[in-house]
Amino acid sequence: MQLEDGRTQGTPDDGIAHAISRINAQLDLLSARFVGRRALLELIMLGLIAREHVLLVGPPGTGKSAAVQSIATAIDASFFEYLIGRFTEPSELFGALDLDALKDGQIRPVTSNMLPEAEIAFLDEIFLGSTAILNSLLKILNERTYRRGQYSVKTPLLSCVAASNAMPEDPLLAAFADRFLVTMFVDPVGENELPDLLKTGWRETGAGAVPIAPLPKSLFASLHAAAVAIDMDEVTEAYAHIVRKVRLIGVVLSDRKLVKGQTLIAAAALLRGSRVAGPEDLWPVTYLVQSRSQQEEVRELLHVELQHSRNPVLSNSVADATYGPTAHAAALAEQAALLLESRPALPTDPLHERWLVRLETMQTRIDAAFDRTSLPQQLRPVHASIESLLARHGPAAAGAAAEDGPREPA
């Protein structure tokens, strides 16, 4: 149905459509700097539009800090970052006391360039913070208010991105972690992406990162206003059904998180180019779960409900959200088949040894992901081919050949 201004019913107006196009273009520029990190960048951008907080969990050296710093510089907003340690003082984040005010009997911190004045924040090793730090953070995360004694001020925070090497086991810290609506588990770049990682890293090191023109804050304000106006009626029952299924496998999602989860669904619908949320936009529910193993269970459990998920701007995070063991097996089978096809013609080819190393790595990836007795059907033929080739040409075969003397090439 055409509206009077020429738009199709349910689509955003031209101004919002242009803003979405700019978000997508910015993500393209940013993801070119970070191999295998498009989904991470997409989720941070989603958090900024929804004005929700994002938790990144993964080992050191996986690019979490660099990605957040890069996206922060690509937005015209004040940015605060800090690496928290066990001995970090609250004043290092929130500002030291104003001594002049203290002489007059007033408790007032100097918050200039500190967390209370930040629009985007990045807090590394978040769970190492003291009780005093975490309590002050709670007020900022939940209510966008910083309070110290009688002093209270509203903060302009759009989104706080936090990082940690692992999820906390302490129940009190787990309760604090629940304030982060989006949780993403970040792994090192996969074996297939290593050449791209090395090339990109070397290019950025040599020439330096080319500056990206920052997006204005007003663009995010417009998108946020449009997101909260999204019609959610069509997905309310479907969302409730998903929550019931997830709870049946023991996943705990607080009422607060479930209600706020709708902001992610609405923002996803907006970035898909719609003013009405549909089944395609329910995929963010995967990122509400704060356990790596349970996220995998949810992906597989909701295979039917999330099979129609799509988003032209957030394509990689959609793929990760709906990527269960079945899809993982299919991807491994495809990668293994391509690797087998790339076999050098002659064993004497210098590239043959490198190819064997990659073949061994692929076998390790398959064996790590699936038990041999329950190997998915699509993986069985390529796994058998890899085993056969490694038995004939791998290190063990080479050692046996050295003991037995020269043999005719296979």
From TrEMBL:
- The organism's superkingdom is given as Bacteria
Q: Which Gene3D superfamilies match?
A: P-loop containing nucleotide triphosphate hydrolases
Tell me what organism the protein belongs to.
Allosphingosinicella deserti
Pfam families noted in UniProt: bpMoxR
Q: What's the protein name?
A: AAA family ATPase
Residue ranges of every copy of the AAA+ ATPase domain listed in the record: 50-190
